[in-house]
Amino acid sequence: MLSLGLPTVWGAIALTYRMTCPLGAQEGLVPLMVAGAVFFAVGTGLILQVRWTLLKELRQVREVAGAAQSVLLRPLPPRVDGLNVAAAQVSAHRGADIGGDLYEVIATEHGVRIVMGDVRGHGLGALATVAAVLGSFREAAHDEPSLGRVLGRLDRALARHLRERAKAEHPAAGPDPESPVAEEFVTVLLLEIRRDGEVHALNCGHPWPYRLPGHPVTPGGHGRVERLSTAEPLPPLGPFPLPTELPLVHCGQLLPGEGLFLHTDGVEDARDGHGRFFPLASALTDAVRIRPVAPQFVLHSVLKGLLRHTRGRPDDDVAVLVLRNDRPRTPVRQDRPVAHHVPR
Questions:
Q1: 72 exposure class (CB count in 10 Å sphere: 0-12, 13-18, 19+)
Q2: Residue 228 in contact with residue 199, Cβ under 8 Å?
Q3: Model-wide pTM > 0.90
Q4: Are 86 and 299 in contact (CB under 8 A)?
Q5: One digit per residue, pLDDT tens: the chain, 344 residues?
């Protein structure tokens, strides 16, 4: 309507000026210059009015999208059952506040359970999938006694969501399409931090987090930043069914003062103008070199370095979650990882 309305209004004003204004009927340089000035002023006013209307609508859309994102990916409390927590996300879309990354931290009777995930895609298209996975996790984290059963719930929720989306997008495909949405997947990392600090994990195609030392890193490498685990992750959720047996990965004990740095692949895959990847391990080492782990400081330091590395334009959505164990020291337990059966 705007594309048709603008020339119509401009043409109507030009015709009216030509027919009703005596100067418009005259020939010569002066009447031509006056007519040109009138048409230019009217056209500029119409263009500015259209631009103002479009900007107003864009602001309203962003406000609605930002409100939906804040409800879905709600801000985390600064402390969860003795853990100091900080989290943030950066969207790959300029001026947007929504992305396909997800995270949540919940204190349960089984320990503090954490999810970090990455939905394939960006922006509004990934929002519904984020809602399906997060909604399922927020219920299953309390209901299920094992991480394996929590992961099974997430897998079934994602499959159900993809089937429903396929029906809406392709109603002619029948009531139960065989391939709901081609190439749709979600990487998921589940962590469970128990009261004694023991950490167990299930990883479906997601980057392993980093363990941060509880004291400043020394030049000799004492208390270095390192991966929480080097175990091979399971495939992402979506393309392949989960294995029947899901062995928990035992990641040792998170001692008082130590921290974890969880992230999506948009952090380590970020490149600068010369194609070099962002050196995340070095950035984390610098963030804890002088002072003990401070989640807000680590978060700010890494994101600042990332945006400097990419000149403020990351190619992928970025989500970061940092936590520190502020609980009193407890004895180490020699528990072995247990394989959990996932019901189908």
A1: middle
A2: yes
A3: no
A4: yes
A5: 544 455 565 556 655 655 566 555 555 566 666 666 766 776 677 677 677 777 766 665 555 555 555 556 688 999 999 999 999 988 776 555 566 789 999 999 999 999 999 988 655 667 888 889 999 999 999 999 999 999 999 999 999 988 887 777 666 555 555 554 556 799 999 999 999 999 999 999 999 999 999 887 666 555 689 999 999 999 999 888 898 888 899 999 999 999 999 999 999 999 998 889 999 999 999 999 877 889 999 999 999 999 999 988 887 888 999 999 999 875 545 454 445 555 54
